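Bench log, entry 3. Co-assembly request; chain sequences pasted below exactly as received.
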Amino acid sequence: GNSVTQMEGPVTLSEEAFLTINCTYTATGYPSLFWYVQYPGEGLQLLLKATKADDKGSNKGFEATYRKETTSFHLEKGSVQVSDSAVYFCALRDSSYKLIFGSGTRLLVRP
Amino acid sequence: EAGVAQSPRYKIIEKRQSVAFWCNPISGHATLYWYQQILGQGPKLLIQFQNNGVVDDSQLPKDRFSAERLKGVDSTLKIQPAKLEDSAVYLCASSLDSGRGTGELFFGEGSRLTVL
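Structure output for the full assembly:
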């Protein structure tokens, strides 16, 4: 079945460090891919998305590229801030338009 | 613009008791979702409503879980009787389209259930 696998956390970085959170997926067809973020005390919110191969989604300095050949959608940011501390969820939308989430990766950025 | 409202935020019950969660989606959003998020796992869809009709409830344990969305606005999720494995955060989300459009869902803060 369709599934999403994320790297386990927590990921702990110093401010201004480079961030990569790995995400790979298994799906039939060509799913749309998403990153959602959950800041402390808030609900999940959409961070970025990509709908077809080689698309790059970007928002708030974060980027992720839809790689069909490696079935990946890794999240990157060149310089993280303390305010980026949150839980990040990778997700795919399958052929029945259902969102399937990964288990989430907690990011902690220290000053 | 008001976000998705959920209540209660926290609930502790004994196994075999019942519990109900309430959700009020963003005004004008036709589609409403209930997700279950067990600790250490990603959210899992329980049920999806389009207006007041059920679109997908394939992963809803219907022997103990029920949900309704009267008048196509707010919704209630009920668990009766609760089991230990029902301990989780129950997330409500809404979207403007049916999920076939942008795919963007707006989530509430969730209701954390602990079953003892």
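Residues 34 and 49 of chain A are 4 Å apart (CA to CA). The interface with chain B takes residues 4, 32, 34, 41-46, 49, 89, 91, 93, 96-104 of chain A (CB under 8 Å).
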